[in-house]
Each structure stands twice: as C-alpha cells, then as structure tokens.
Amino acid sequence: MKAMSPELASWLRGRTDDSVTVKRLHGDVSGRLFWRVFTGNGTHVLMDSGKIPVWPWIDIHELLRANGFRVPAIREIDTRRGWVLQEDLGSRRLLDVDDGQYMKLLDEASDIIVAMQRRLDGRTCADSIAGRRSFTPAFFMAELENTLETLFFRLLGVPMNELLELQREMRTLCESIDPSSVFVHRDFHSSNLMVVDGRLVMVDWQDARFGPPAYDIVSLVRDSYRDPGHVWEDRARKFTLAKGNMNMFQIARTACQRSLKATGTFSFHYRKTGDTRYLGYIPRTLRYLADYARICPQLDGLVRKTYRTLDKYHGEIDLRDFRSANIPEVRSR
Questions:
Q1: Do residues 320 and 311 touch, judged by C-beta distance below 8 A?
Q2: Chain-centre distance of CA 157, in angstroms?
Q3: DSSP state of 3
Q4: d(CA 256, CA 227)
Q5: What is the C-alpha separation between 248 and 252, in angstroms, rounded?
Q6: pLDDT tens digits, residue range 134-147?
Q7: Domains of the chain by range and CATH?
C-alpha cells in the first residue's frame, strides 16, 4: 500500500496541525489515493489525484454545487499537485444499507438523476468540461472493443472469427442507442452514493459528460455491485414516466451497452492488478443481459451470441456457470 509522500504530509500539517493523524482509505480504480484525516476539530478526507488531472473533478464539483446538488465541501486545495482536503462524508454507501432503506433510497437516487437532467442543460454546462464532452456511437463502441479484447479474447480465448461476429452485433447496438443528450454523471451506482444523515450525496463525478437520458438510471438499477432484483424494471419504468419522452427499448439498449462495457472494465482491472475481486462482479452483470433481450427483441441476437460464446470458451477464467455462480473459476496466470 502506497504511503503518503513527505511533501503531501507537510502540506497537510500546514493546513491542520502537527498532531494530525491519518488512515488510508480504499481508493478507486483510477489510481487516486484517499486518507481519512483526524484533527482536533473533527475529520476530513484527503485526496491525492497524483498524475490524474484534478481540474475536471473541481470543475464539475463547482457545477453541481452551484446548481443545488449536495457534494462534499472543499476545505483546502492545491490544483497543481492534485491535492484536495474535503468534507468527510463517512463510510456508509448505498451499497451498504439494509434492503428496506436501499429500496427507499433508490427513489431518491432516481429523483436526483431527473433533477440533474433538468437543471444541468447545455446552457448551464456551457463553461464546464461536462458540457464539452459527450457519448457518441464511436465512444460506446471503443468501450466494447475493450470488452472484446480483455474478456473475450485474453481471458476466454475466443477465436478471431467469433470475435468479429460479436463485434458486428455490438456495433449495431451502439448505433441504436438514443442520440438525445443530457447531463450524465457516468458512474451513478451504489458505490458512488454516500448516505449522510439518511440522504444521498454523490461522489466520483469527474467523468461527467452529456449522453443518453437512460444512462444514469441503468447504472443505478442494473448495478454490478448490488442487484435490486425484479423491481429494477419497475424503477426504470417509473423513470421513463417521469421523463415523459422515453421508453423501455431505450432503457434496454443503453443498459446492454453499459453492462457489456462493465464486464470489460472488470476484466481489465483483474488483468492489471491480479485482484480476483473484480471477476466476482462479472457473472451478475452478464445475467442482466437476458432481461434486456426480453424487453427489446432487437438485442436477442447479441445476447444469444454472447451467451453461446461464454458457454463454449474458457481460458484463464471459466464463466460457464455464470447463470448460477458469482465467482468464476480462475486458472493460474
């Protein structure tokens, strides 16, 4: 575990006091580092963005705060070195609450998505990096190319001719996703929603951009970390009614791309770190695909090909039991 640099420790003491103590927190897959900071005046969270530019995080933090969304307050900041001392939101996430509270908070989370899409329009976001980035069919397909390479080719050993068949189906999917564009958090799921005094507070917004209206709601209700069960569809339908200009086909197509993309992301981080924890999220996410094909028959060909491929090939990992097991078999690397 990487220790705090002497320069960062000195910077922190200069903004607190010499008696300050810290405890390393789990970071995220981006490589940013976090510590809980204990002082005589309470606790804070220190973020070291390292080599990752911190200005998009700051820019979108200000955009959200200025438009009435709850985000952690910034206490001190060094933009050049990527250091941020911020409010401590605690350790309780939507991921961690009991089932009863989870279901209630899903409604609040959905309301936050609707509010973001209403308040953060193109004019409001014109001066923010979020307003100058957007999803496109090419961007969606680039994400799925990562899935084809890392999961299907490198981990499962799928031959090129069958990869090309999947690629054609995935390209058709990406070209069919709703071209409408609204503000999208991009990682709006149970691990990025903190529960503070019974209410939700967003974190990890630095990749926000404009994209399909369905994107954040499918991130929430088709979450790779926590499955709300059959009620996901009810929550998705309720969202389409709140929006007034959406349907479940849009939900299914967007969800299908995001779920396939997520399996590639988990595969990539497993290959990068060797941490099998990432593999544990893949079977659940793959099971979601069947629901999308049921809702939107256009997706049936892609889902069938995907499932046949998973049943047929196994290399470094074996996902043939993905329908019933959450931990794939892993062979020695």
A1: yes
A2: 27
A3: P
A4: 15
A5: 6
A6: 999 999 999 999 99
A7: 6-87 (3.30.200.20), 94-330 (3.90.1200.10)
